[in-house]
Structures are given as structure tokens and as C-alpha cells.
Amino acid sequence: MIVRRYVVKEMPEAVASIRRELGQDAVILSTRNIRVRKWLGLRSERRIEVMAAAKEDLAATAGASFGQALKRAMAESATERPSPSADSEAWAELAREIAEIKRMLAASRQPDDAQSPGSLGPVQGWRAFLQNEGVDAVLADRWARMALGEPGVAGDRSARAEALLGAILSDLGALAHPAPIRRDSRIVAFVGPTGVGKTTTIAKIAALHVLAGQRRVGLLTADTFRIAAVEQLKTYADILNVPIAIADEPDDVPRALASLSSCDLVLVDTAGRNFFASSSIEQTKRMLAPMEADEVLLVISLATKPADALKVANMAKPLGVDKFIFTKLDETSSVGMVPSLVALCQWPIAYVTTGQNVPDDIDILSVPDLLAPWKEARVDG
Ligand SMILES: Nc1nc2c(ncn2[C@@H]2O[C@H](COP(=O)(O)OP(=O)(O)OP(=O)(O)O)[C@@H](O)[C@H]2O)c(=O)[nH]1
Ligand SMILES: [Mg+2]
Question: Where is the AAA+ ATPase domain (predicted)?
């Protein structure tokens, strides 16, 4: 079930995007006039918000109470985030606005721009802040200089925070957008170190698809390393009433996949291994090879030390990783590793998980969503 939100200046713009993305038979669920606040709240502009869904999605969930509940939930969450298509215009506008803000700030330097004796100065202060948040040292330096290093680009602290976020987003480009599992992906493998939440996240994603009633989900576990691992996934499969197959070794994979041939989305759980050891990576790679997964998602816990997470991501590269899943957002207050890893690995974020509850504690968040708290950050200098 896909419900998308479009924020446009004129209705024909929305209709064109809806037809292109959701098909000729897409259904417009609602329209309303809204005002979009611009950066720093300096001005707002009129826009039309349009909610639309693909017709077959509506048909698939019609009458099913679970489906309707999910439709509502997704529509609610969709209203909180701009859709990627609406984003492209918004992102171009954002870049223009950042340039405009920079000019305005240069023209009206505030008294607190003057660097008091002994203070760090904006570049050093923000660099220290970013590193403390978990951003890689080189990137912290780059982003602080990009945003604050030019003479005259200063202002009060919140303006500096906005300039910094603007610099990070301009560096990340399209990678700052969330990238959940594609509609045309059939086999999706989850890899990552031990205990990061791979199995739980698979259960959440499977449950959401079952509730949506749109894709026939199957589970495949290649985790026979831990005794309880198969039982864990089987329990979820029983609850959700979806088929499950087990592959003990690479040679088992074709048989296991064949038993799930009726499924149009197969979520593959792999054994959590020590990703610092190249032998573990090799074993995972051998297991993945016969699957020919459409997407490989690297699961990283946000409670991991940023330097270790970067090492894990680098070690995982031979696995053909496409995207990140960041778990345990609820167990950390520093999210600096997110833009840092996205920039260094050039993989976008598929999902972010926020707790142990299946299926509720999972979200589709953009980098700006995750970094929003930085706008309120207290930074020396
Ligand atoms: N706080 C919190 N806990 C989570 C989250 N996701 C998973 N967990 C918990 O993390 C623990 C490990 O989860 P699993 O899903 O078994 O992790 P795994 O990666 O499959 O573990 P292995 O298969 O042993 O490598 C469980 O207690 C989960 O409930 C999350 O977003 N937040
Ligand atoms: Mg597991």
C-alpha cells in the first residue's frame, strides 16, 4: 500500500507526478491548501497538499480491517514527511534559500558574531561539536568549513546550525532522501554484526507488508549459526502466517528459494557475525552469492561506537551493500554517524528503528529528519 503526499504550487504539477509515479489509475485521496514555512521562519508560501494512492493498492486493502488501519497509519506518517518527488523541487529551493540566508547574514552581522577572547570560533566550535556527535574527523572539518569558513558567513547560533545542515545536505545530495525497499525488489538480504536487530527489523518489515496486504511475503533464514535463531524467525513467521524456509549452507539456497516461489518479497535473515573478521564476511558472502539479492541492507546499531560502525561498513563492502538500516535510535542521543557513514559509503538509509516493538518501532526518515535536533544544539564558539 503506497500513499504518497505531494506538495505543489499548482494542481497540474501534482497530477503529472501522481500519474508518473502511481500509474494512470491512481486515486487522489485528498487535497488541501497549506502554507509552507521557509527557513528560519522568515516567510511562508501557499502550496497545495495532495494525498494519492495507486488504485490496485486501494483494491488490495479494501474491506480488510488491518489494511485499513495500516492505510491510515501510513497516510499519517506520509503527512509528516515530504515525498521524494515533492522533495526535488523542495531541495532545489532549499539550496537557493541557503544562499539567500548566507547573503542576509553577511549583510546584517549580529553582535555575537564577534569572536570573544578565548572562544573557539565558529569553525572550530562546530567541528568539535560534529566530532563529538560521531561525525568522522575529516568530514567534520569539511562541513564546518563549508558552512562557516567563508568570511562574513556567520550570524547567531541557530543561523550557523542551519548553514551547517545546509552544507551537509548539499554534500549528500540525493543520498539524504530515505530509500525504503523498492517495489520491484523481490529478494532482500539483511546483513550486519551480532545483535544489532536484523531479525527484529525483518519481523517489523514483514508485518507491515502483511498488514498492507499487497505483497506476498516470505522469510528465509540463513542463520543456523545460533541455536535459537531459526526459532526466533519461525515464531514471527507463525504469528504473521507467512512461509519460512531455512538454508543451512549455500547449496541449500536454491531449494529454499524455490519453496518461496509464490512470494513476491523474500526477506533474508543472515547470521550476525563479527564483522571485524574477514573470515566472517567471507562466510556471509558465500551464503549470499546464490541468492542474487535485489537489495542488500547493512544493519548498524546507532549505539555502536562511530569508528567501529565505519569499520563494519568498510568490511561489509564486499557483500554488495546497497543501503543502511540504522537501529536503536532510542538508545542513543548522538546521530552524527548517520550523515558521516552515508557520505563515506554513498549508501542511503532504508529504515531507522526506534525500539523493540514489532511492528511499530520502525520509521522511514531522511537525514534532515534525523539531524533536526542539531538546530537547537548548544555549541561553543
Ligand atoms: N532498543 C532497541 N532494541 C532493539 C531495536 N531493534 C532490535 N532491538 C533489540 O535488540 C536485540 C537483538 O535483536 P535481534 O533482532 O535478535 O538482533 P540480530 O541482529 O538478529 O541478532 P543476531 O541474529 O544474534 O546477530 C533484541 O533484544 C531486540 O529486541 C531497536 O530499534 N531499539
Ligand atoms: Mg538474528
Answer: 184-304
153 and 201: one domain?
Answer: no
SS3 category, 304: coil
> Which atom of ligand 1 is found nearest the CA of 203?
15
Domain boundaries, position 25: 3-80
Question: In this structure, are 44 and 182 located in the same domain?
Answer: no
CA of 43 to the centre of ligand 1 (A): 43
- Tell me, yes or no, whether 185 and 54 share the same domain: no
In a domain, 372, yes or no: no
Which residue's CA is the closest to the ligand 1 atom numbered 29?
356
Q: Indicate the residue type of 11.
A: M
Which residues, 6+ apart, have CB-to-CB distance to 61 below 8 Å?
1, 67, 68, 70, 71, 212, 213, 214
Of all ligands present, the nearest one to the C-alpha of 193 is: 1
**In terms of Cα–Cα distance, which of 275, 313, 301, 269 is closest to 287?**
269
Please compute, for residue 19, the number of CA atoms within 13 A of its CA located in the half-sphere on the CB side: 6
User: Digits of tens for pLDDT over the chain (381 positions)?
Assistant: 567 788 888 777 888 888 788 887 777 766 777 877 665 555 677 888 777 777 665 444 333 443 454 445 445 444 444 444 545 566 666 666 666 665 555 544 443 334 444 455 678 888 999 999 999 999 999 999 888 876 555 567 778 888 899 999 999 999 999 999 999 999 999 999 999 999 999 999 999 999 888 899 999 999 777 778 888 899 999 999 999 999 999 999 999 999 999 999 999 999 888 999 999 999 999 999 999 999 999 999 999 999 999 999 999 999 999 999 999 999 999 999 999 999 999 999 999 999 999 999 999 999 999 999 998 887 766
Cα of 225 vs centre of ligand 2, distance in Å, is 10
How many domains is the chain partitioned into structurally? 3
